[in-house]
Amino acid sequence: QVATERIQRSLIVLAPQDRVFALIADPRRTPEWLVGVRSVHVLTSGAIRVGSETSSYVNALGRDWLARGRCVVLEPPDRIVIETSLGPGIQSRSDSRLEALEEGKTRLIAELAFRRPGGPFGMAFSALGVRESIENDFDRSLQKLKLFLEVSPCS
């Protein structure tokens, strides 16, 4: 059995909660801040909701992948959870929680949980330091999101 690994970060963004949520809940804008995401196509019609699905082209772990995402929790402007399948058996769950703070600031608590595949690919996944690579991309993405929101007041 493969264990789920988790990475969690908390950061303060100098932007109101509704703006932070609007950016992270809009899959079309994901390439603007999420490291490695090249493009996103929304597969379901209408506004983003629980059950909305996306198809994305992602560069991760040194190669290009097709990823499928699905919104499983949507509680504007407090929380969004996306589950993603990437390549040969990599599953992830991104859980973003937002809390409004004084003076238009927002606390973002972001958790990325992922399961590596089993078998030989899973052993290579561990041996090649993939967790460290995922953690680095996660940290870079959160810093890029923070900078984007703080520098672009109309985003």
Percentage of helical residues? Answer: 25-40%
* Percentage of residues in strands: 35-45%
Radius of gyration: 16 Å
Strand tally: 7
Q: Can you give the mean pLDDT? A: 90
Question: Structural class from helices and strands?
Answer: alpha+beta
What about the largest sheet? 7 strands, antiparallel
Record the strand order, biggest sheet.
Answer: 1-7-6-5-4-3-2
DSSP helical segment count: 3
Note the overall shape: globular
List keywords for this structure.
single chain; 3 helices; seven-stranded antiparallel beta sheet; 155 residues; globular; 7 strands
Q: What is the topology?
A:
Blueprint: E1 4-13, H1 17-24, E2 37-42, E3 53-60, E4 63-75, E5 79-86, E6 90-100, E7 106-115, H2 119-127, H3 130-151
Could you characterize the architecture of this molecule?
- The protein is an alpha+beta fold.
- Helices cover 25% and strands 43% of the residues.
- It has helices spanning 17-24, 119-127, 130-151, and strands at 4-13, 37-42, 53-60, 63-75, 79-86, 90-100, 106-115.
- Strands 1-7-6-5-4-3-2 form a 7-stranded antiparallel beta sheet, with helices on one face.
- β4 and β5 (79-86) form a beta hairpin.
- The protein is globular.
